[in-house]
Design brief:
heterodimer, A: about 110 residues, mainly beta, 7-stranded mixed beta sheet, 4-stranded antiparallel beta sheet, 11 strands, B: about 110 residues, 6-stranded mixed beta sheet, 5-stranded antiparallel beta sheet, globular
């Protein structure tokens, strides 16, 4: 079975631009969570979606938004990019909101 | 405030040694605790999940324990191998769906 997939693998943007990151969960998983990981730190929770509804939100500005589609895939959108948004963005899926989370390989975003 | 701390930040051991990684969390009202392994530049690989009602979980050479009352979890790795070299992260899941990670312990196992 395929694991969690994310696209693109790498992305380079300039300040002020917006970006869309995509995630496909493991088949049968209905929950998707997004995390930001800055070099040398643990991941920070951004959002959790379950059954297409937002179920949790971390301490991130409104420039960050997400959605989940009927097939349970998800998009993370970041507007008005800042240099500090450069990070590895990780997506995780789980069967429901509370079960074991499985992570994708991440999208490396560089903002110049 | 829900904070997770991992000690030590880095650890270097010779092959074959048994070792313990520590994780502490300030808010004991966790739903579960999960241990992960992360190789450089890669995503996270789930190792063990302990529900709040459980005391420990085992998988192969790995054993994780949970003591909610003291806000601690430990990951025990038996007979370490060079392939175990990676960063190990613990994460506490809370009922508000937030998942708090520690900064990780970078493990090096020398042949």
């Amino acid at each position: 079975d395929a694991g969690v997939t994310q696209s693109p693998t790498h992305l380079i943007k300039t300040r002020g631009q917006h970006v869309t990151l995509r995630c496909s969960p493991i088949s049968g998983h209905k929950s998707v969570s997004w995390y930001q990981q800055v070099l040398g730190q643990g991941p920070q929770f951004i959002f959790q979606y379950y059954e297409k509804e937002e179920r949790g939100r971390g301490n991130f500005p409104d420039r960050f938004s997400a959605r989940q589609f009927p097939n349970y895939s998800s998009e993370l959108n970041v507007n008005a990019l800042l240099l500090g948004d450069s990070a590895l963005y990780l997506c995780a899926s789980s069967w429901d909101r509370y079960n074991e989370q499985f992570f994708g390989p991440g999208t490396r975003l560089t903002v110049l | 405030k829900q904070e997770v701390t991992q000690i030590p930040a880095a650890l270097s051991v010779p092959e074959g040694e048994n070792l313990v990684l520590n994780c502490s969390f300030t808010d004991s009202a966790i739903y579960n605790l999960q241990w992960f392994r992360q190789d450089p530049g890669k995503g996270l690989t789930s190792l063990l999940l302990i529900q709040s009602s459980q005391r420990e979980q085992t998988s192969g050479r790995l054993n994780a324990s949970l003591d909610k009352s003291s806000g601690r979890s430990t990951l025990y790795i038996a007979a370490s191998q060079p392939g175990d070299s990676a960063t190990y992260l613990c994460a506490a899941k809370y009922n508000n769906n937030d998942m708090r990670f520690g900064a990780g312990t970078r493990l090096t196992v020398k042949p």
